[in-house]
Design brief:
heterodimer, A: 140 residues, mainly alpha, B: 145 residues, alpha+beta, globular
């Protein structure tokens, strides 16, 4: 059940949530023509996420030997981007407290995402090892 | 299942005859397994041509537009491209694991997760290969078959 939640429900909820928010924003923009603050925020976040995905793809070309190395390199490289968006689009106030809080949230979210993929890939490797065992039993 | 072995000097090549009351999945798999031995790859090493049975092949790799066949102890070069070899060996235990490598799943000892959504394969001879994220599903499907 945990595996199903992680592999199916979390990605589907995330995709549906994103599509619903963006479509609602586009419809709102076309029909109302007004500049709704929340819709503006949703588009800014979408832009931020697309940029981080592009950077993640580029960082992924480096051959990291450990998960921790990959995590620290990516977290450090994406941190200025995160801070730039947060300050530029006024997601946070320009004071030390807000920046510290934003940084803490950023590192926890980043660690969560990396741990999620680490767990999923470990499960996938275990599944392949089980399939290999079955395959050997069938063929030898 | 009874196993009968006969030594007959007059035969030109080894013959395998399977007698069965009904065709079952186990027999089909046994036939597929025996057919693996029928696949012979041609490779050359130091100007000599060698016939390499598929069951002895660990993996096939392209480096600088040259294709190499790796067995447990030897490396042979082949004139064929990796794409040609992939299509010729589609029905065997060979599967693509990256842009430049084909893996024989009979040579796999185990797999481990590896950073950036890849897998590390440990071969029976102790060598390690990386499976690109794009080919992980193909590897799973090949083992499932």
């Amino acid at each position: 059940m945990v595996h199903k939640v992680l592999k199916t429900y979390i990605p589907s909820i995330s995709m549906c949530f994103t599509v619903i928010i963006l479509l609602a924003g586009i419809i709102n923009l076309v029909t109302e023509g007004s500049k709704n603050l929340f819709i503006g925020f949703a588009f800014e976040v979408a832009g931020y996420l697309i940029l981080t995905c592009i950077l993640d793809e580029l960082i992924g070309r480096i051959n990291f030997k450990t998960y921790l190395g990959h995590f620290f390199a990516e977290a450090a490289l994406l941190y200025p981007v995160n801070l730039f968006f947060a300050v530029k689009f006024k997601w946070i106030g320009m004071n030390t407290g807000s920046i510290i809080l934003c940084s803490i949230v950023y590192f926890f979210v980043m660690a969560g995402i990396h741990f999620y993929f680490y767990y999923m890939e470990k499960s996938s490797a275990e599944e392949i090892n089980r399939l290999l065992e079955d395959w050997r039993d069938r063929n030898v | 299942m009874r196993l009968l072995l006969q030594h007959r000097k007059e035969l030109q090549e080894t013959e395998i005859e399977i007698r069965y009351p009904n065709m079952t999945e186990r027999i089909t798999r046994l036939i597929q397994h025996i057919r693996q031995y029928d696949f012979i790859l041609e490779g050359f090493k130091e100007d000599k041509v060698y016939q390499i049975p598929l069951d002895q092949v660990c993996y096939i790799e392209t480096i600088d537009r040259k294709t190499f066949i790796y067995s447990d102890r030897n490396i042979y070069e082949t004139k064929k491209t990796i794409q040609v070899m992939e299509s010729e060996l589609m029905e065997t235990t060979i599967v693509r694991i990256s842009k430049s490598q084909l893996l024989n799943i009979t040579a796999v000892n185990n797999v481990k997760s590896y950073p950036n959504h890849r897998l590390m394969v440990e071969l029976n001879n102790g060598e390690h290969l990386l499976v690109s994220r794009k080919y992980i599903t193909d590897l799973k499907e090949k083992i499932r078959r």
